[in-house]
Specification:
It is a single chain. The protein is an alpha+beta fold and 110 residues long. Helix content is 25%, strand content 14%. The chain has helices spanning 20-24, 32-38, 43-51, 70-76, and strands spanning 7-8, 13-14, 29-31, 60-62, 65-69. Strands 3-5-4 form a three-stranded antiparallel β-sheet. A two-stranded antiparallel sheet has the order 1-2. The radius of gyration is 21 Å and the shape is globular.
């Protein structure tokens, strides 16, 4: 039998279990109320913290909306983030160790 989340009167939401996988499944960014629930914060407090640059993760203001990058949430929670958006099978251009002098002739031309 699965237990249903209990209702939290202080936030008005059901107590939610936010696992690392569930947070990552949100995509690249999420809205401020969702990020607040991850941190166990109420909506009103989250907006106050965002306005004063005190939210526990970096917040991006886009017009009248706030967006919170998922890597910032993971970092604030002490969870690993992936700094490279390319798959492990493809090296990105910022991997300078992959460029060898033999790839260029002596004049520096390709």
């Amino acid at each position: 039998m699965n237990a249903l989340p209990s209702h939290n009167a202080s936030t008005g939401h059901r107590d939610e279990v936010w696992t690392e996988d569930r947070i990552r499944a949100l995509g690249a960014v999420t809205d401020l109320p969702t990020a607040a629930r991850i941190f166990g914060l109420g909506r009103s407090l989250a907006y106050d913290l965002a306005r004063t640059d005190q939210f526990p993760a970096p917040v991006i203001r886009a017009g009248t909306r706030y967006r919170v990058p998922i890597p910032g949430i993971l970092t604030a929670l002490g969870l690993p983030t992936s700094s490279d958006l390319t798959s492990s099978a493809k090296r990105s251009v910022d991997h300078h160790d992959g460029i060898r002098p033999s790839d260029h002739d002596e004049r520096g031309e390709p």
